[in-house]
Structure formats: C-alpha cells, structure tokens
Write a structure and sequence with these properties.
The chain is mostly beta strands and 134 residues long. It has one domain. Helices cover 11% and strands 32% of the residues. The chain has a five-stranded antiparallel sheet with strand order 3-2-1-4-5, covered by helices on one side.
Length: 134
C-alpha cells in the first residue's frame, strides 16, 4: 500500500503527477479554508469538471500560469479553460523538490498528411565546375 492510498487528500500534489500529466478543465475558482486546525487559512482553490478530480490550491506562480493560458488574470474568465498538471521542480526551504507544474495543452498537429518534399533542380557536372578563388 502506498502512502497516498492511506492518507488520501482532496488536493492535487506532486505524487499525483509522477505517473503522468493530467488534463483538467476548470469549472470555477473559490477562496476556501485549506489546512487543519490552527493551521487553516483561506486560499485560492481551483475546482474541475472532470469526474473524481481533486482540487488544486492555486499559488501565486500557478495563478500566473493559468492567467497566461486563459489570457486573463480575472478568475471569472477561467471556467472552461483547460490546463495540464505535470511534474516539475521548485525550491522549498533551500532544496529542489518535486512540485506540480502547469502548462497549456499541446495543440494537435493541424497537418493531416506530411508536407511534400520540395523538389530540387537537377544538377549537372557543368554546374559543379565553378571556379572558386582562394
């Protein structure tokens, strides 16, 4: 049994993306209490449309990443925006640790077939007999 199986959390963390990236669609952003007991504080939290998805605490860095993807720094414009959570790195207390990184989904290649090669003009031996001064 893994630690994540025993101590389940309602929020995404780096262990959730170690096995691969996660594509999510934002449903809404709320300010809500995060933490336990005296360690609770109000945070910006993203909720998602996908069934059985967790919530994501939106830090300042994550806020900026989502705002760039959404092309808006107003969270009212974020519902429907798709983001990808993937494994990244962050400095924490002077150490490099695993973290969640956010990026835009990759766009599918718009070309249905590969581009045809550009034909090159035929060369003759006369074309190769240039005088190059040294």
């Amino acid at each position: 049994m893994k630690k994540s199986d025993v101590f389940q959390t309602e929020f995404y963390n780096s262990s959730d993306v170690k096995s691969g990236s996660i594509l999510l669609t934002i449903s809404d952003i709320r300010i809500e209490p995060v933490g336990n007991g005296t360690n609770t504080s109000d945070k910006c939290v993203a909720h998602f449309r996908e069934p059985n998805s967790k919530k994501l605490v939106v830090t300042s860095t994550k806020f900026d990443a989502i705002a760039m993807i959404a092309k808006s720094d107003d969270t009212e414009n974020w519902p429907g925006v798709q983001i990808v959570l993937e494994l990244g790195k962050a400095n924490y207390q002077g150490k490099l640790v695993d973290a969640i990184s956010i990026r835009a989904p990759r766009r599918p290649n718009r070309l249905a077939t590969p581009a045809a090669p550009i034909p090159r003009p035929a060369t003759t031996e006369a074309d190769l007999d240039d005088q190059i001064p040294y």
